[in-house]
From TrEMBL:
This is Glycoside hydrolase family 32 protein. Keywords: Glycosidase, Hydrolase. CDD domains: GH32_Inu-like. It comes from Tessaracoccus lubricantis. The keyword Hydrolase applies. One of its GO terms (molecular function) is hydrolase activity. The keyword Hydrolase applies. InterPro entries: ConA-like_dom_sf, Glyco_hydro_32, Glyco_hydro_32_AS, Glyco_hydro_32_N, Glyco_hydro_beta-prop_sf. Residues 13-312 form the Glycosyl hydrolase family 32 N-terminal domain. It comes from the Bacteria. Belongs to the glycosyl hydrolase 32 family.
Amino acid sequence: MHRDTPQFRPSLHFTPERNWMNDPNGLVLHKGTYHLFFQHNPQGRTWGNIGWGHATSTDLLTWHELPVAIPATDTEMAFSGSVVWDRDNTSGLGAGSEGPLVAFFTSAYPAGNPTRPGQQAQSIAYSLDDGATWARHAGNPVLERGSENFRDPKVFRHEQSGRWVMATVEAAGRQVLFHSSENLLDWRFESAFGPVGEEGVLWECPDLVELPVDGGGTRWVLVLSTNPGGFSGGSGMRYFVGSFDGHQFVADGDPRWLDYGPDFYAAVSFHGAGSTFIGWMSNWAYANQTPTFPWQSAMSVPRRLSLTPVGDGLVVRQEPVLPEVMPEGVTRAAIELSAGEEVVLVTGNGDAPSRCVIRRLEDGSLVVDRSEADPHGVHRAIVATPPIPLPDGPATGWLIEDHGLIELFLAEGTVAVTMQTFPHAGPVRVVTEPDAVAAAG
């Protein structure tokens, strides 16, 4: 028998009213409204029966949940994907003078499917009423390879070549595939990137976006999610900086971590606001076991991304989208950490409050430890981050805490750490303890 857990319902982070949620899908800014679609099981709090949930916002801060947009059917589940506004009606799916919104999702067919047993392929749904209702395209799927791990279509307009581009993954093969189209319906293969990363992991949810560089210019950034193989264990995210000519992505060098915490996955950009991202604030190592009810999982706060020079390369800088006044139950605190110092988030009253420790080690690296902030024992396998590299000197930045959800942005936003906790109920205090590491040792 589950009991409601209002003490864990965040004020700033999006959660569905009830039931399961994972990856953000179909992020699009359309006529002044942000649409957030998401992987959703409307029938229960664990993964299954997956279709697309839907919420909208005009400011990225307050969200209104709508009915399921693309439900699962008896013949397929609707896995992750993207939405574009086909403004010029290149697809011919529009009505009248205005082009449709077009959603690309992965059709995940069951093992018993007579023609595509256990396979995954890319399909279309479209909306003629600004996203309120959606119809599956009669010609689905529009792209298939006979593969069981071909998924997560991220479609964008490549203005230089005047074509649509789709990035997908062969997840088990650790490859990103690029296809192009003039009409969103007929796709031709352009190139593959990879395989990249460790063997035995899955690459998922690709996004390729052109980001501004501090000081001028732009570069292309390929964002990927990996499960497992994350920096802190379980699932996580990396990115490559490079170039893209409409046909092929070429990386400048090795990948970097987009977030060093355990709870940031499947982040993708908004079509129409390409530098704004949202990620799923959980980890596949324990996502089905977290103790919230009647909902499961939250999204991160939106983040605006750019590139800044660090050393001889470019690093993603992340700036959270926050209100001027924090809602009730949300803490936003400026922090500064030198070697040997720590900041402790203390939650609850009594003799044994919950504690999440943000500790700068003597070598200058950072560790975030939630071992005393999870009385439910959900995170037994991943209670702390490994040492996170930081630039020399004091590390300054911002800490956001929202009913146990923690997002940390340091070094001018070039280091992000995202972590969920499930602390005891009660007030939150941010305690600075200089030299606490040395004193304890």
